[in-house]
Specification:
This is Permease. The chain has 16 helices and no strands. It has 343 residues and is an all-alpha fold. It has one domain. The longest helix is centred in the middle third of the chain and has 35 residues, at 209-243.
Length: 343
Protein backbone atom coordinates (compact mmCIF):
# COMPACT_ATOMS: atom_id res chain seq x y z
CA UNK A 1 0.00 0.00 0.00
CA UNK A 2 2.86 2.36 0.83
CA UNK A 3 4.41 1.79 -2.59
CA UNK A 4 1.14 2.62 -4.30
CA UNK A 5 0.68 5.83 -2.25
CA UNK A 6 4.18 7.01 -3.16
CA UNK A 7 3.79 6.56 -6.91
CA UNK A 8 5.69 9.30 -8.84
CA UNK A 9 3.64 12.14 -10.25
CA UNK A 10 2.66 11.81 -13.90
CA UNK A 11 4.09 14.17 -16.55
CA UNK A 12 0.68 15.80 -16.86
CA UNK A 13 0.44 16.55 -13.14
CA UNK A 14 4.01 17.88 -13.10
CA UNK A 15 3.17 20.09 -16.06
CA UNK A 16 0.05 21.43 -14.38
CA UNK A 17 2.05 22.10 -11.22
CA UNK A 18 4.64 24.06 -13.23
CA UNK A 19 1.92 26.22 -14.76
CA UNK A 20 1.08 27.50 -11.28
CA UNK A 21 4.63 28.74 -10.61
CA UNK A 22 6.16 32.20 -11.15
CA UNK A 23 8.54 30.61 -13.70
CA UNK A 24 5.59 29.74 -15.94
CA UNK A 25 4.25 33.29 -15.75
CA UNK A 26 7.67 34.73 -16.58
CA UNK A 27 8.00 32.40 -19.56
CA UNK A 28 4.49 33.29 -20.69
CA UNK A 29 5.25 37.01 -20.50
CA UNK A 30 8.35 36.70 -22.66
CA UNK A 31 6.60 34.43 -25.14
CA UNK A 32 3.85 37.02 -25.43
CA UNK A 33 6.33 39.86 -25.97
CA UNK A 34 8.21 37.75 -28.52
CA UNK A 35 5.01 37.17 -30.50
CA UNK A 36 3.47 40.65 -30.25
CA UNK A 37 6.55 42.87 -30.12
CA UNK A 38 9.66 40.81 -30.96
CA UNK A 39 11.89 43.86 -31.25
CA UNK A 40 11.55 44.58 -27.53
CA UNK A 41 12.21 41.13 -26.04
CA UNK A 42 15.86 41.92 -25.29
CA UNK A 43 15.07 45.36 -23.87
CA UNK A 44 12.39 43.90 -21.60
CA UNK A 45 14.76 41.21 -20.34
CA UNK A 46 17.54 43.76 -19.75
CA UNK A 47 15.20 45.97 -17.72
CA UNK A 48 14.17 43.04 -15.50
CA UNK A 49 17.74 41.78 -15.04
CA UNK A 50 19.12 45.23 -14.18
CA UNK A 51 16.34 45.82 -11.64
CA UNK A 52 16.88 42.38 -10.10
CA UNK A 53 20.63 42.97 -9.88
CA UNK A 54 20.03 46.31 -8.16
CA UNK A 55 17.93 44.55 -5.51
CA UNK A 56 20.30 41.56 -5.14
CA UNK A 57 22.20 42.95 -2.09
CA UNK A 58 18.89 43.51 -0.30
CA UNK A 59 17.77 39.99 -1.20
CA UNK A 60 21.00 38.47 0.14
CA UNK A 61 20.83 40.38 3.41
CA UNK A 62 17.13 39.57 3.82
CA UNK A 63 17.76 35.86 3.27
CA UNK A 64 20.66 35.81 5.75
CA UNK A 65 18.63 37.69 8.35
CA UNK A 66 15.54 35.52 7.97
CA UNK A 67 17.61 32.33 8.11
CA UNK A 68 19.37 33.57 11.24
CA UNK A 69 16.09 34.42 12.98
CA UNK A 70 14.67 31.01 12.13
CA UNK A 71 17.79 29.09 13.20
CA UNK A 72 18.02 30.91 16.52
CA UNK A 73 14.32 30.52 17.28
CA UNK A 74 13.98 34.27 17.74
CA UNK A 75 10.30 34.23 16.82
CA UNK A 76 9.54 32.66 20.21
CA UNK A 77 10.22 36.07 21.77
CA UNK A 78 6.96 37.29 20.25
CA UNK A 79 4.99 35.26 22.79
CA UNK A 80 6.28 37.52 25.55
CA UNK A 81 4.33 40.41 24.03
CA UNK A 82 1.11 38.69 25.08
CA UNK A 83 1.64 38.79 28.83
CA UNK A 84 0.78 41.57 31.26
CA UNK A 85 -1.59 44.51 31.02
CA UNK A 86 -3.83 44.69 27.95
CA UNK A 87 -2.58 48.13 26.82
CA UNK A 88 1.02 46.94 27.05
CA UNK A 89 0.13 43.81 25.09
CA UNK A 90 -1.44 45.87 22.30
CA UNK A 91 1.67 48.04 21.93
CA UNK A 92 4.07 45.09 21.96
CA UNK A 93 1.90 42.97 19.66
CA UNK A 94 1.75 45.78 17.08
CA UNK A 95 5.52 46.20 17.28
CA UNK A 96 6.46 42.52 17.22
CA UNK A 97 3.98 41.82 14.45
CA UNK A 98 6.34 43.61 12.09
CA UNK A 99 9.42 41.81 13.38
CA UNK A 100 8.38 38.17 13.62
CA UNK A 101 9.58 36.00 10.71
CA UNK A 102 6.38 33.93 10.58
CA UNK A 103 4.87 32.47 7.48
CA UNK A 104 1.09 32.75 7.49
CA UNK A 105 0.49 29.09 8.29
CA UNK A 106 2.72 29.41 11.36
CA UNK A 107 0.64 32.35 12.55
CA UNK A 108 -2.44 30.13 12.86
CA UNK A 109 -1.17 27.65 15.48
CA UNK A 110 0.84 30.36 17.22
CA UNK A 111 -2.20 32.63 17.69
CA UNK A 112 -4.41 29.64 18.51
CA UNK A 113 -2.05 28.78 21.35
CA UNK A 114 -2.04 32.35 22.64
CA UNK A 115 -5.82 32.56 22.53
CA UNK A 116 -6.03 29.27 24.40
CA UNK A 117 -3.81 30.79 27.10
CA UNK A 118 -6.17 33.76 27.43
CA UNK A 119 -4.49 36.43 25.28
CA UNK A 120 -7.04 39.20 24.61
CA UNK A 121 -8.53 39.60 21.14
CA UNK A 122 -7.38 43.24 21.09
CA UNK A 123 -3.70 42.29 21.27
CA UNK A 124 -4.19 39.47 18.78
CA UNK A 125 -5.87 41.87 16.34
CA UNK A 126 -2.94 44.30 16.71
CA UNK A 127 -0.59 41.46 15.78
CA UNK A 128 -2.78 40.29 12.89
CA UNK A 129 -2.96 43.75 11.32
CA UNK A 130 0.73 44.60 11.58
CA UNK A 131 2.16 41.14 10.83
CA UNK A 132 1.31 40.87 7.09
CA UNK A 133 2.46 44.44 6.39
CA UNK A 134 6.13 44.23 7.22
CA UNK A 135 8.87 41.88 8.31
CA UNK A 136 12.66 42.15 7.91
CA UNK A 137 12.81 40.75 4.35
CA UNK A 138 9.83 42.80 3.17
CA UNK A 139 11.38 45.95 4.65
CA UNK A 140 14.60 45.38 2.72
CA UNK A 141 12.86 44.48 -0.55
CA UNK A 142 10.65 47.58 -0.25
CA UNK A 143 13.69 49.75 0.41
CA UNK A 144 15.46 48.32 -2.63
CA UNK A 145 12.52 49.00 -4.94
CA UNK A 146 10.97 52.18 -3.51
CA UNK A 147 13.66 53.69 -1.29
CA UNK A 148 14.19 53.81 2.44
CA UNK A 149 11.75 56.68 3.12
CA UNK A 150 8.87 54.63 1.70
CA UNK A 151 10.01 51.45 3.46
CA UNK A 152 10.33 53.18 6.83
CA UNK A 153 6.96 54.88 6.35
CA UNK A 154 5.39 51.49 5.63
CA UNK A 155 6.94 50.04 8.79
CA UNK A 156 5.58 52.94 10.83
CA UNK A 157 2.18 52.50 9.18
CA UNK A 158 2.23 48.79 10.07
CA UNK A 159 2.73 49.50 13.76
CA UNK A 160 0.19 52.35 13.66
CA UNK A 161 -2.39 50.10 12.01
CA UNK A 162 -1.81 47.45 14.63
CA UNK A 163 -2.34 50.00 17.40
CA UNK A 164 -5.43 51.39 15.66
CA UNK A 165 -6.98 47.95 15.34
CA UNK A 166 -5.99 46.79 18.81
CA UNK A 167 -7.46 49.77 20.60
CA UNK A 168 -10.56 49.75 18.39
CA UNK A 169 -11.23 46.13 19.39
CA UNK A 170 -10.57 46.97 23.05
CA UNK A 171 -13.13 49.79 22.89
CA UNK A 172 -15.71 47.58 21.18
CA UNK A 173 -15.21 44.77 23.69
CA UNK A 174 -15.66 47.24 26.55
CA UNK A 175 -19.15 47.88 25.13
CA UNK A 176 -19.97 44.16 25.06
CA UNK A 177 -18.98 43.25 21.49
CA UNK A 178 -17.22 39.99 20.56
CA UNK A 179 -18.23 38.09 23.69
CA UNK A 180 -17.53 34.82 21.86
CA UNK A 181 -15.26 35.62 18.91
CA UNK A 182 -13.50 32.30 18.29
CA UNK A 183 -14.17 29.33 16.06
CA UNK A 184 -13.25 25.81 17.10
CA UNK A 185 -9.63 25.38 16.00
CA UNK A 186 -8.28 22.11 14.66
CA UNK A 187 -4.55 21.76 14.29
CA UNK A 188 -3.27 20.86 10.83
CA UNK A 189 0.10 19.67 9.65
CA UNK A 190 0.91 22.69 7.48
CA UNK A 191 3.84 24.04 9.45
CA UNK A 192 3.80 21.81 12.50
CA UNK A 193 2.60 23.29 15.73
CA UNK A 194 4.33 26.66 15.34
CA UNK A 195 6.96 28.05 17.69
CA UNK A 196 6.92 27.02 21.32
CA UNK A 197 5.53 29.72 23.55
CA UNK A 198 8.08 28.99 26.29
CA UNK A 199 11.12 28.64 24.03
CA UNK A 200 14.31 30.64 24.34
CA UNK A 201 16.38 31.87 21.37
CA UNK A 202 19.83 30.41 20.84
CA UNK A 203 21.69 33.39 19.36
CA UNK A 204 24.90 31.36 18.78
CA UNK A 205 23.02 28.87 16.64
CA UNK A 206 26.19 27.56 14.97
CA UNK A 207 27.11 25.72 18.18
CA UNK A 208 24.30 23.22 17.59
CA UNK A 209 24.26 20.93 14.55
CA UNK A 210 20.43 20.86 14.12
CA UNK A 211 20.32 24.65 14.10
CA UNK A 212 23.15 24.82 11.54
CA UNK A 213 21.20 22.42 9.37
CA UNK A 214 18.08 24.55 9.76
CA UNK A 215 20.03 27.68 8.81
CA UNK A 216 21.25 26.05 5.58
CA UNK A 217 17.79 24.76 4.74
CA UNK A 218 16.16 28.13 5.43
CA UNK A 219 18.80 29.94 3.38
CA UNK A 220 18.25 27.75 0.34
CA UNK A 221 14.46 27.81 0.61
CA UNK A 222 14.17 31.58 1.16
CA UNK A 223 16.76 32.47 -1.47
CA UNK A 224 14.85 30.52 -4.11
CA UNK A 225 11.50 31.87 -2.89
CA UNK A 226 12.58 35.52 -3.03
CA UNK A 227 14.46 35.14 -6.30
CA UNK A 228 11.56 33.60 -8.21
CA UNK A 229 8.98 36.10 -6.94
CA UNK A 230 11.21 39.12 -7.55
CA UNK A 231 12.13 37.84 -11.00
CA UNK A 232 8.40 37.75 -11.72
CA UNK A 233 7.88 41.18 -10.17
CA UNK A 234 10.57 42.88 -12.25
CA UNK A 235 9.40 41.13 -15.41
CA UNK A 236 5.89 42.49 -14.83
CA UNK A 237 7.32 45.92 -14.02
CA UNK A 238 9.24 45.94 -17.32
CA UNK A 239 6.05 45.16 -19.23
CA UNK A 240 4.06 47.69 -17.21
CA UNK A 241 6.47 50.55 -17.83
CA UNK A 242 6.79 49.78 -21.52
CA UNK A 243 3.20 49.04 -22.51
CA UNK A 244 0.78 50.66 -20.03
CA UNK A 245 0.14 54.34 -20.86
CA UNK A 246 1.22 56.69 -18.08
CA UNK A 247 -1.89 58.81 -18.62
CA UNK A 248 -4.09 55.82 -17.76
CA UNK A 249 -2.37 55.22 -14.43
CA UNK A 250 -2.29 58.91 -13.57
CA UNK A 251 -5.97 59.23 -14.38
CA UNK A 252 -6.98 56.44 -12.02
CA UNK A 253 -4.63 56.73 -9.03
CA UNK A 254 -2.69 59.92 -9.68
CA UNK A 255 -3.07 63.34 -8.15
CA UNK A 256 -3.91 64.53 -4.66
CA UNK A 257 -6.93 63.99 -2.47
CA UNK A 258 -8.76 61.06 -0.97
CA UNK A 259 -10.32 59.67 -4.17
CA UNK A 260 -7.16 58.21 -5.79
CA UNK A 261 -5.98 56.91 -2.41
CA UNK A 262 -9.30 55.24 -1.61
CA UNK A 263 -9.43 53.87 -5.15
CA UNK A 264 -5.95 52.38 -4.78
CA UNK A 265 -6.90 50.79 -1.45
CA UNK A 266 -10.03 49.20 -2.91
CA UNK A 267 -8.13 47.98 -5.98
CA UNK A 268 -5.30 46.68 -3.82
CA UNK A 269 -7.51 44.42 -1.73
CA UNK A 270 -8.39 41.96 -4.53
CA UNK A 271 -5.42 42.66 -6.83
CA UNK A 272 -2.47 42.32 -4.45
CA UNK A 273 0.08 39.50 -4.97
CA UNK A 274 2.51 39.48 -2.04
CA UNK A 275 4.92 41.74 -0.18
CA UNK A 276 7.82 40.78 -2.43
CA UNK A 277 6.12 41.31 -5.79
CA UNK A 278 4.27 44.52 -4.89
CA UNK A 279 7.21 46.96 -4.37
CA UNK A 280 8.69 46.60 -7.88
CA UNK A 281 5.23 46.86 -9.44
CA UNK A 282 4.44 49.96 -7.41
CA UNK A 283 7.78 51.47 -8.46
CA UNK A 284 6.65 51.08 -12.05
CA UNK A 285 3.21 52.51 -11.30
CA UNK A 286 4.72 55.53 -9.53
CA UNK A 287 6.92 56.13 -12.58
CA UNK A 288 3.73 56.05 -14.65
CA UNK A 289 1.93 58.63 -12.51
CA UNK A 290 0.58 56.87 -9.41
CA UNK A 291 0.72 59.11 -6.33
CA UNK A 292 2.87 57.95 -3.41
CA UNK A 293 -0.14 58.10 -1.10
CA UNK A 294 -2.08 55.80 -3.40
CA UNK A 295 0.91 53.44 -3.54
CA UNK A 296 1.02 53.28 0.25
CA UNK A 297 -2.74 52.63 0.47
CA UNK A 298 -2.54 49.93 -2.21
CA UNK A 299 0.28 48.12 -0.44
CA UNK A 300 -1.29 48.21 3.02
CA UNK A 301 -4.80 47.23 1.92
CA UNK A 302 -3.39 44.46 -0.25
CA UNK A 303 -1.23 43.05 2.54
CA UNK A 304 -4.14 42.89 4.97
CA UNK A 305 -6.40 41.23 2.39
CA UNK A 306 -3.89 38.81 0.90
CA UNK A 307 -5.10 35.22 0.90
CA UNK A 308 -2.58 33.94 3.50
CA UNK A 309 -3.27 36.85 5.86
CA UNK A 310 -7.04 36.45 5.58
CA UNK A 311 -6.79 32.68 5.99
CA UNK A 312 -4.93 33.12 9.27
CA UNK A 313 -7.75 35.28 10.63
CA UNK A 314 -10.70 33.41 9.10
CA UNK A 315 -9.52 30.07 10.47
CA UNK A 316 -9.67 31.26 14.08
CA UNK A 317 -12.45 33.83 14.47
CA UNK A 318 -16.12 34.12 13.58
CA UNK A 319 -17.28 36.06 10.49
CA UNK A 320 -18.14 39.28 12.34
CA UNK A 321 -14.61 39.55 13.73
CA UNK A 322 -13.20 38.79 10.28
CA UNK A 323 -15.36 41.57 8.78
CA UNK A 324 -14.05 44.01 11.39
CA UNK A 325 -10.48 42.94 10.53
CA UNK A 326 -11.02 43.80 6.87
CA UNK A 327 -12.78 47.06 7.72
CA UNK A 328 -9.97 48.16 10.01
CA UNK A 329 -7.45 47.18 7.35
CA UNK A 330 -8.94 49.21 4.50
CA UNK A 331 -9.66 52.19 6.78
CA UNK A 332 -6.10 52.14 8.06
CA UNK A 333 -4.78 51.84 4.50
CA UNK A 334 -6.65 54.97 3.39
CA UNK A 335 -5.55 56.93 6.46
CA UNK A 336 -1.95 55.83 5.97
CA UNK A 337 -2.04 56.89 2.34
CA UNK A 338 -3.45 60.31 3.23
CA UNK A 339 -0.83 60.88 5.93
CA UNK A 340 2.06 59.76 3.72
CA UNK A 341 0.79 61.87 0.83
CA UNK A 342 0.66 64.94 3.07
CA UNK A 343 4.27 64.60 4.24
Amino acid sequence: MAELSQRPASPVSRGLKFLKTPWAVIAGVFVGVAILDPGNVLATAQFAVRALAHTAPYILFAVLLLSYLKATGAETMVARAFHGRETRMIFLAALFGGLAPFCSCEVIPFIAGLLALGAPLSAVMAFWLSSPLIDPPTLLITAGALGWPFAIAKAVAAVALGLFGGFAIKALMAKGAFASPLRAYRRSGCCGSGPRLDGKPQWRFWTEAPRRTQFKAEFGHNALFLFKWLALAYTLEAVLVRYVPAALIAGIVGGDGIVPIATAALIGMPAYLNGYVAPPLLAGLIDQGMSVGAAMAFMIAGSVSSIPAMAAVWSLVKPRVFAVYLGLGVTGAILSGLVYQSI
